[in-house]
Design a protein that fits this description.
Elements (H helix, E strand, L loop, with lengths): L1 E4 L6 H11 L29 E9 L8 E9 L4 E5 L2 E3 L1 H8 L11 E2 L6 H4 L2 H12 L2 H86 L5 H113 L4 H126 L6 H10 L4 E4 L4 E2 L5 H8 L6 E3 L2 H13 L7 E3 L17 E2 L5 E2 L4 H8 L1 E3 L3 H10 L5 E3 L5 E2 L5 E2 L7 H126 L5 H114 L1 H5 L2 H23 L3 H7 L3 H4 L3 H18 L6 H63 L3 E6 L10 E6 L13 H18 L4 E5 L7 H15 L3 E5 L3 H6 L2 E6 L7 E6 L2
Parallel strand pairs: 1-20, 1-21, 6-19, 9-10, 13-14, 19-20
Antiparallel strand pairs: 2-3, 3-4, 4-5, 7-9, 8-12, 11-13, 14-15, 15-16, 17-18, 21-22
Amino acid sequence: MSAIVGPNGCGKSNVLDAIRWILGEQNPRQLRANVMEEIISNGSEFLKPLGMAEVSLVMENVSGYNFEQVEIKRRVFRSGETEYYLNGVQCRLKDITDIFIDTGSGARAYSVIGQGRVDQMITAKPEDKRTLIEEVAGIRRYKIRRRETETRIKTTRENLSRVKDMVNEVKRQMDTLSLQAKHAGEFRELSEESRRLEARILRARLERLEKKKDSAIGEKTAVEQSIAKSEEEIIHVINLLKKLNNQSLTTDDKIRESENDIYRTKTELQAKISSQDLIKTEISSIEKFIEKIESESALLGSERLQLAAQTGIKESALEEVGLELQKENIEIGGKEEKLAAIKAGFSAIRAEHQEIRASLFKTLDEYSSLKGAALGYEKELRDLYSKREVIEKELSEIELERKAAAEEIISLERILLENESKKQRVSESRDSLQAALSSVSDTQARKRDEYDGLQERLNESSSRLTVLNQIQANYEWLPEGIRNFILEHKGNGVLGTVSDFISVPEGYERAVEAVLGDKIKWILVEENAQALRAIDSLRQHSLGRGTFVPAIGAHHLAVSNGRLLNARPLSEIVSLDDKLSIIENLLKSVYMVSTLGEGLRMQSETEGGASFVTSEGDYLHPDGAISGGTAQPGVLERKREIENLKTVISELQSGIDNLSLEIESNELEIKNLNSGIKGFESELVETGIIDAETRKDIFNFKNNLEKLERRIEGINQNLEKTGVETDEKLQIMEDTRVKITSLDGEKSVLEQRFGDVEGKIQKAEEEERSVEREIAEKKVKCASLIEKEKGLIEDLTELERRIRDIDNRIEHESRNIEEKKQEKLSFIEKDKYTVEEIGLINKTITENEEKLQVMKNERNAIAEEIRTANETRETLNTILSDLRLRNNSLELDLNSMLIEAENINDMIERSNLSDIVSDLAGREETAEINIQEEEPRLRRLQAQIEKFGPVNLLAPEEYNKLEERYKFLNDQMEDLNQAINSLGKAISKIDKESEKRFRETFELMDQKFQEIFSRLFRGGEGKLVLTEPDNMLESGVEVMVRPRGKKFQSITLLSGGEKALSAIALIIAACLIKPAPFLLFDEIDAPLDDRNTSYFIELVKEIDKNSQVILITHNKKTMQQVNSLIGITSNRSGTSTVVSVDLN
């Protein structure tokens, strides 16, 4: 158990923040910062700002790792980049957090409690307090696995959906190709039969044509001899044309060659431009390398200053030893002078004794000196062996780093190729979706135009219907007085007008209105009394005149019941309400005729009372009067128009609804396509970022690889130098041992002689021995000082050697910087030269294009000469035309034969019948064929083939491939369904295990919390309660406490000390059930008094048996109980210094 102590502001809490940060904390606010870059030192009055922050944590006995110690490291740079290392090897954040998962340790675990946050453990939300139980139960790993499994299920379902879509698409294609394959088979059979018959016909025609041609050629030969001389001039002109054509071809070749030269020059220009870009990249890389080397040189300079300071300290110590040795030698001289005075009185024995004694001391001095030297050499050898082990370990680690870097480069290059392939696939998919989007958008635009047209028609019809309904409902076609009367009294005995109770088939409206006339405006009332009252009302209020028809008690008109054979009564056409029997009687005597003439004829043939009407409204009255002409649409036509408008509106609304569904469907498809395109574009951006980052990583790893190579070279040199030094020390050590053995023998002899002589003069030498003892002690002290002096000299030598090594490394780095600067200058010069070359190439391109234009002008001149020669030849042909008239007949026949033969051969070639025709040569079946009979048969076959239309001849092969793919996709669907079921079972298993562990741990925590709470409060009661006992996987945890002498109450009503003690009880209960590897508490005891601090320390000592406990504290009582104190002090602004004290 350790305590971190120190004054306020010295950096104690920074230790906890640093550990929390290296454990994976990602929220800068948890580290008392706004952004992560703020944890990097900005320097002070004496210190420069740093470019990065780094924390290392070394642990022992880490399970799962075959190392005595495991070191984790985290770095953050001002650019925002973060790096993680595990035993010096770069890794992921997940690799770090996996070490601590389910151990109780972590950035947000109960093992690390920040300053002033102890009471948050019990005042937090129930869901947050649940995480403490989960940490103790060790189910975080299960929750992570569950999230990963859910993600895999989601991914698998998406893959299954895509596979189903692909299966449906393949099935649709198979259905289409099945029919195409069948058509292709029939098409091939007919085509083969047609080709065979066509080949036989063409071969027969060709053979018969050859016979005619041979006969014509014989006749033509005699005729041609007479015109051969005349053709010589034409031949001369033709030769001239050939010459000119050859010149034209030569000029064309030169033009093409010139164009090729221009193309090659432009290609070279593009290569130079690319080379220029590469040179700029190299210059930038060299500048970064120089900056890095200069940074390393600065670190070496700092190390050299430290070594120089140590050298000064050693030199001061050496000077002090020299002064002390000189003082001791002076004292020895005084003692020896005193001894000489004592010895002056002795006889020859004394002289012999003195001689032997001097020899013995000399031997002892030399022996002691050699012994001290041997010890020094052994120490140096141990240091050299240790140094060699360190160098070899470093070399091994660097070799591993180099191998890892090389493998990483290969991996990254493979990723780069895969990313490029993915980029191409995504780009093609995006283009496909964009084409589909364009098609759907065009369709959508057409649908919207159609929708707008229907909506406009609907608005017009609805507006017209509203107007007509208003006219009809308000009786606006009636006089104003009558209209107001009906509207005021309708429902109170007034039923409406006659038109309200008549239903007329379409086309008969004008006929009915012509017959009824003003009767259609009659007002229908319930009885005669109401009709009389209505007339009085009209007269009283001067509202005009009106005709009222009582529905009850109306008189029936006497009409003839006879029926004309060729005319239909209007009463059978019109549908009337029962209340209008009077109108029905009127219509029975009216007949529909097609024309007035027909009505006049019928009226003359009938006796009395009959009248006739046409569909146009022309009316023949019973008295012989005739009404006709044009009139405005009446009330019945208006009713018909209302009914028609309702039908039209219903149809338009249906069309609009259908279009709306189609537009919505298209909108959804457009949205999906846009989403897909956006997704593909995001993937393209992501692949671009991955590409850039991968290239950057490859560049960094290659630079790192070069640096490792240089470090290996330096280490090998250092290792070789250490080996040479070791061999030299071993040789010196061996020589020293030989001398020590020899001196040991001499010492034994002298000691024997000295004992013999000393026995003789023992009594006389008491005083002398006393002096000699003092001298011996002084000499021994001198010998010790000499050894110390030798050790300091050797230390100085070693420090000077290390300083020289650093100077050599600084010089080496300086040379590297100078070389890189020279290399940079070389690239700059090369860039300048490249710019000049680009200018020369541009100039060459301009000159070549000018030469090309000259050659094109020459070609045009030759073309003009060819045109002139052709005109000359035409003139000569005109002069010779009279001669050739004699040969026209044979020439035309022969040409016709040749053209026909060529046509036949062309047909053979175009129809790809050459092989078949060749096989038929000379066969009797060709000679005997009747072409006039076979050609109609061939045309019938070709007509049958034409009816097939476009035929996919590859359909059978494509169908077989699709069938294989359909089977493969079905297998994939089955595998994906099995995978989803398997993953679902895994989640169920994880949930069961998590629920079991949580329940068991919750019960243990509840018991242990009650126990610890009672110990801390010396009574009282504390317990844990689930907020949702039936939902163990999601239930929160609430803490209920009752201090001694009080009742159960809300946590918020407790005092600060009670809250702290309750939280401490909860934390210690967790630590006792599942000890964390280490615990770090920042001023957790601050709210406690001395008595409660003692209780707290007792419990912490129990935890200390299984965990490493570190307390940040100002409490003296806590300091007295710990095993060691770690003092934090700040000598200068911006720095913290550690001073440790082991209290045991």
